[in-house]
């Protein structure tokens, strides 16, 4: 079940139902015309379910994978044509579907393990009627594919290897020169530079698996989702951790970026929505003043924790003893008197 909600009052306005197995991923297609938008969801039942955004009724179900569908993406080729759906599966395959009639346009094979993430290289959108797709899997491989309506093939026999294990998410910077950000279970996020043949020039370390990464082109901020339950905001150029948003009580599995309408306090400015295994969606404002306020709060919390530690001399000798309360001091004094 997918829940559609409104930020202002956090009330669910509609449930998209029909799938009986867990859903793994969601994509929304907006045609930008009077045509109806579509919600797609990858599922453990090896298929992709779809619903009308206007009527909210179930539409077509796309079947053809032999294992869980792990990621979905909806787009059009250029010039603007009928929409296509692209899905990656735990079976190691990628299928390109014609949305309108459910036909398989292409089945791409090359990954030896499950496909975890898909991203379209925006630089490829200058090519008439085609695109370049990047895909990442649960080994460590990132592969590149040329796709048009009539043909599809892998662009290089050798995959991009930038991580030690699973690559969980891919995210391109905007524009024809945009670099690629990757999130991995090796506990890092990396920027792969287009001009250096996708060599990493930036590494952001985390304490646990990194499940997702998003990039704000306007501000140069990188937002990451980690298995340690936290959402982090980084400065891309300096690689500095700016702040950490805490609130989830289970693994954070995905992120979405948004910009609110002027004058609407509930969704003002730039924000990030995070989704977690704890069953909640949470929204974090990430304008500069919000990041600074969160960083200041973290600083005060850290200072408060430090005040609980006795003098620095004890800490330097490995002690991590908290200052005793008056009640504890009285109890200790009684024990000492008893010893006398």
How would you explain this protein's 3D organization?
The chain is mostly beta strands and 340 residues long. The protein has one domain: Methylamine Dehydrogenase, Chain H (7 Propeller). Helix content is 11%, strand content 46%. The protein has helices at residues 288-307, 312-316, 326-339; strands spanning 2-5, 12-16, 23-29, 38-43, 47-52, 58-63, 69-76, 83-89, 93-98, 104-109, 115-120, 130-137, 141-148, 152-154, 160-161, 167-172, 180-184, 188-193, 199-205, 210-216, 221-226, 230-235, 240-246, 252-259, 270-276, 281-285. Strands 11, 12, 13, 14 and 15 form a 5-stranded antiparallel sheet that branches. Strands 3-4-5-6 form a 4-stranded antiparallel sheet, with no helix packed on it. It has a 4-stranded antiparallel sheet with strand order 7-8-9-10, with no helix packed on it. The radius of gyration is 24 Å and the shape is globular.
